[in-house]
Amino acid sequence: MTKITELSKTRELVSDGAWGTFLQQKGLQPGECPELWNLTHRQEVMDIARSYIDAGSDMIETNSFGGSRYKLEKFGLADQGYRLNKAAAEISREAAGTEKLVLGSIGPTGKMLLLEEVTPEELYDAFREQAMALEAGGADAIVIETMTDLDEAVLAVKAARENTSLEIICTMTFDRLVTGEYRTMMGISPAEMIQPLKEAGATILGANCGNGMSGMVDIVAEIRRADPDVPVLVHANAGMPVYKDGHTHFPESPEETASFVKALSAAGANIIGGCCGTTPEHIRRIREAMQDN
Known about the structure:
Radius of gyration: 17 Å
Structural class: alpha/beta
Mean pLDDT: 95
Oligomer: single chain
Strand content: 15-25%
Distance between the termini: 26 Å
Order of helices and strands: HEHHHEHHEHEHEEEHEHEEEHHEH
CATH topology: TIM Barrel
Number of helices: 13
């Protein structure tokens, strides 16, 4: 299959939307392990993957965001990491068929290198195990996402690059400061992430979570000013979360989300999808807006 980097040079691509909030709608309870659903609720996970394909996604992720041994150990599943990640990729592979792409999702471990909660070698090994399992399950690329610590992100990229044959995507999560600038929780700007992550082996960079589409326009523009050529992926929330009546709501409608596609494209985005709160309808509207662009 043609690599994502090559496809992104010929046309804009549509990614998928939220998984975590979708799993909750399917019945995932607080304190449950989402990745365990790959074994216990396979059809529900398959339904999510297929819904995004039906909505027009060119690529879908896997239900493996928290699939590192460090996240899984909280559920007593640290020794099941390979099996759960492989199953996640197999489900998305079946849903995607041979025409669409599968991105193996890897999220942060929750361990802090700065506080010496884990060594670089231990982190590398955990990411290696996860990436290899996702490749074995049929992923076309690895997407390392929602990173705030550049050192952890670099280790994840290296582990995936050195132990699989897959393309590596890396997105970080940025917050808007009162000054109008964007930084991760660890103080990294969009421009500052580019060179270290490319040197580690990432071929597509971007941002996810933390912002609605409007904030992503500025982030993409900063990345593009610093690097005119690297393909840029955006997975934006459906607006900034609002806590109301005991629940977290994401206020941005599919129409509102899609209204930013033109500005994102102009800023330099190559791949556009959604994160928390986005639904198949958000993705369908993004696809329509992209076709009209």
